[in-house]
Amino acid sequence: MSRVYIETYGCQMNFADSEVMRAILIGSGHRIAESAEEADYVVINTCAIRDNAEQRVLRRIADLEAWRRKSGSRMRIGVAGCMAERLKHNLLQQGESVAFVVGPDSYRRLPSILQQVESGSKVAETELSTVETYDDIEPVRIDGNGVSAYISIMRGCQNFCTYCVVPYTRGRERSRDALTIVAEARHLYEQGYREVTLLGQNVNSYRAAETTFPQLLAMVAEVAPDLRVRYATSHPKDLSDDLLRTMASYDNICKAIHLPMQSGSDRMLKLMNRHYDSAWYMQRVDAIRRMLPGCSITTDIIAGFCTETDDDHRATLDMMRRVGFDHAFMFKFSLRPGTYAATHLVDDVPDKVKSSRLEEIIALQGELSLGNNRQEIGRRYEVLVEGESHRSKEQFFGRNSQNKVIVFDRKETRIGQYVTVEVTGCSAATLIGKLVNGRCLQVK
Ligand code: SAH
Ligand code: SF4
Ligand code: F3S
């Protein structure tokens, strides 16, 4: 039996998948190593969303190869995740020690893959499935803080945004059985977890038997009043009033919505195949403000998509100001082989222009975040304590329902507890606060 170390890159779904891989490996008698150096196998769970994500993984493989040669270790490498699916057996040529490639729907085959590798073969298993959800596998969570956990509720995506590789690397959309999700949430609660994040590329498409996403959200919220429930991600084209109503009816469903906008230009949105325009996006934002006052709104933005002009770019900046996002993930467009953009459009915005537009977007978001955070000063929030702050052992950090990080003097509090904190200061990224009477808040 082997010692396996799993390293994860990319999105939350990959982190959740690594936990599934750990469960499968442990279930077949393998052990989880604590570092790459002491492992027989290093499995790299990869992301293919942008070229720089892939370059990072290729550098990591090269570094591991070099270390292996120098140290005389017999460690072998396995490549899992979205790059595995995109590049398949070609990855076996990345280095002598790359022994296997395993796509996102083939993790149940890991034990047999390791067996084949032991007997001298190189293996690539990259078949995508229309049904695999790993719903009977209880993920092994070892990287986390014991307070907050991911639960994968669906896999795949078939929205085919023209820039995006995910539909090709993750395959068709499929939803996991609702009762297994609720059972997992309940088990996590019993183990002391106080927050779960339900994961899918577009949670509003969740449907298992007769259960819709708002119904599932309510079922998980019913597990316990002091179990916080979050989710990611909701596609603006079908963010429904029904979902907003469900969020409003439960205190423990967090008031934070990640709503990737991508661009503020209607021409770009059409070219991206996003199925909404800026008016629709704004109308959804208004619905959130009306039905969920105080809810935070965060987003994803792409700078320099195919044929983007200065006017298109300005439309994005205008929309950012109109919405006043609390936070954004901002990217330079990266052309992905095999996507509609690669086969039908031209990646004609020069890199320099992409960079300067991205910088403007980042600078504006910095102002918006800081402005929003300044308004928080003086407000009181219920905060779930997650861990020690990086700066000082005397301080803890946690999040409020809006998903904003708040740092405060820890005093007698402990990780996993709910406390009331009053915001006293801020930066663009973090709120600073003080415990109110140093007391633990009674959960409603
Ligand atoms: N399913 C989620 C997003 C998953 S990918 C959704 O649609 O909301 C996360 C983000 O990466 C996307 O929202 C997009 O902003 C960005 N992204 C995806 N493909 C990209 C590309 N080719 N170049 C740059 N950014 C990209
Ligand atoms: Fe990619 Fe669009 Fe699917 Fe999100 S919804 S994963 S951006 S194709
Ligand atoms: Fe990356 Fe795959 Fe997630 S491409 S963003 S790891 S679904």
Uncertain regions: pLDDT < 50 for 5+ in a row?
none
Strand content: 15-25%
Question: Kindly state the mean pLDDT as a whole number?
Answer: 96
Number of separate structural domains:
4
Number of helices: 13
Would you tell me which CATH topology of the largest domain applies? Rossmann fold
CATH class of the largest domain: Alpha Beta
Q: Architecture of the largest domain, according to CATH?
A: 3-Layer(aba) Sandwich
Widest β-sheet, arrangement of strands:
2-1-3-4-5-6
Question: Which molecules are bound besides the chains?
Answer: S-adenosyl-L-homocysteine, iron/sulfur cluster, FE3-S4 cluster
Radius of gyration: 22 Å
Count all strands and give the number: 21
Could you tell me how far the N terminus lies from the C terminus, measured between alpha carbons in angstroms?
49 Å
Helix content: 25-40%
What is the name of the CATH superfamily of the largest domain? Methylthiotransferase, N-terminal domain
Structural class: alpha/beta
Largest sheet: 6 strands, parallel
